[in-house]
């Protein structure tokens, strides 16, 4: 039996191709690529908005809270701590709390305007709640005016009734007495140093 020359040609052709690749073509393919051209595109500065972080600290019983946004400090005291039901006269307990508030304002305030805002829950007529919230804000204003005499501050009192609740008065279709109590509040707003 004799071998045909055909398979020998294939083997020789494959060997020649392998030698050519190793000797001549392969080293060029393995060479380092040319370094990239220098980047010349302009670099633009990014200007992105930075939102203030709003932190709120609330007492364990929920009767007072403090929040700060930028330089604006808001102290909130529930009306249940400051006033008797449906009344606008400060209680003895309120006087002690306002003393602490005045101390904080003396320590941290940059002076200027102090806003005092009264709020109610959703019980009662709007006109009644508006009057009550304003009278309560004015009572707190007068209490602080005495405690902060000579501190270079001015006051502005406003009543908002039930229009600015802190939390929903009704949750899952049911009135929430806890939330209503948190909404009955007076907020004292000042600018920190």
Automatic annotation (TrEMBL):
Print the keywords alphabetically: Cell outer membrane, Membrane, Signal
Q: Which Gene3D superfamilies match?
A: OmpA-like domain
Query: What range does the record give for the signal peptide?
Result: 1-31
Q: Where is this gene product found?
A: Cell outer membrane
Q: Which InterPro entries match?
A: Bact_OuterMem_StrucFunc (IPR050330), OMP_bac (IPR006664), OmpA-like (IPR006665), OmpA-like_sf (IPR036737), TAT_signal (IPR006311)
Tell me, in one coarse class, where this protein mainly resides.
membrane
Q: Which GO terms describe its cellular component?
A: cell outer membrane
UniProt domain OmpA-like: residue ranges = 70-193
* Top-level taxon of the source organism: Bacteria
Q: What is this protein called?
A: Outer membrane protein OmpA-like peptidoglycan-associated protein
Q: Which organism is it from?
A: Streptosporangium album
